[in-house]
Amino acid sequence: MLKGTIIESGYYKILETFIVPRLMEWKLTPDTITIGGLLLSMLAGLAFAFLPLLGGFLTLLAGLLDTLDGSLARATGQSRKFGAFLDSVIDRYTEFIIYLGIWFYFYRGDDRTPYSLLILLILFGSLMVSYTRARAEGLGERCLGGAFQRGERIVLLGAAGILNPLVNLFAAGLAAAWAMNLALKSALVLLAFGTNLTALWRFLHVLNQLRKKA
Q1: Do residues 16 and 75 make contact, with C-beta atoms less than 8 angstroms apart?
Q2: What pLDDT digit, counting tens, does each position of 5-57 carry?
Q3: Is the dihedral of CA 202, 204, 210, 212 positive or negative?
């Protein structure tokens, strides 16, 4: 959704101006940043299982590293197929680990079946969002559209984790049991529908483009 927008360009401008030069001074490599993002995601998944507030912060930080590795690679002329492949594969693992932590959080609270199903739908949708892009680009077609790409998913998860304890405090004060964990639950519902709709939109878009060229 934010691809090609002024928000995206402004965000990367900030990274390239204030953060990337520091990373270059410290002689860090893009692959090191990628591995660091994986380790942070593992901590985020563990934190989500017990303390969603910390899980949300760590998820946003991991998302920052996920964008920094590419910026650093471009700034240092280290853009390579090896790094791009490593980053793409690790991205899938990082998301899975975070969702596993969220699943365990609900498992501990006996909210097992509905949220297990939602997380399965999200994982499938996220996989298909990535697959449709990879398959389209393999056929020579650009496929970057959709509102629930990886960046948006990470921001939504991070924000939900941070807001969840605040929502729970409010719900406890009103004795509104139905509102407990509402921030996380709402994010999961949005992601379950949004990722699959994004994958479907990409599928139809690429089919239409290929049909025009047939």
Answers
A1: yes
A2: 677 788 888 988 899 999 999 989 999 999 999 999 999 999 999 999 999 99
A3: negative
Query: Which residues lie closer than 8 Å to 122 by C-beta, 6 or more apart?
Result: 99, 188, 191, 192, 195
Q: What is the pLDDT of residues 85-103, one digit of tens each?
A: 888 899 999 999 999 999 9
For domain 6-213, which architecture applies? Answer: Up-down Bundle (1.20)
Q: HEC string of the chain?
A: CCCCCHHHHHHHHHHHHHHHHHHHHCCCCHHHHHHHHHHHHHHHHHHHHHCHHHHHHHHHHHHHHHHHHHHHHHHHCCCCHHHHHHHHHHHHHHHHHHHHHHHHHHHHCCCCHHHHHHHHHHHHHHHHHHHHHHHHHHCCCCCCCCCCCHHHHHHHHHHHHHHHHHHHHHHHHCCCHHHCCHHHHHHHHHHHHHHHHHHHHHHHHHHHHHHHHC
C-alpha to C-alpha distances, 153 to 60, 134, 148, nearest whole angstrom: 10, 18, 6
Please give the structure tokens belonging to residue 101: 């932590």
Looking at this protein, which amino acid is placed at residue 89? V
pLDDT digits (tens, 9 = 90+) for 145-185: 788 888 899 999 999 999 999 999 999 998 888 899 999 99
pTM recorded for the entire structure? 0.90
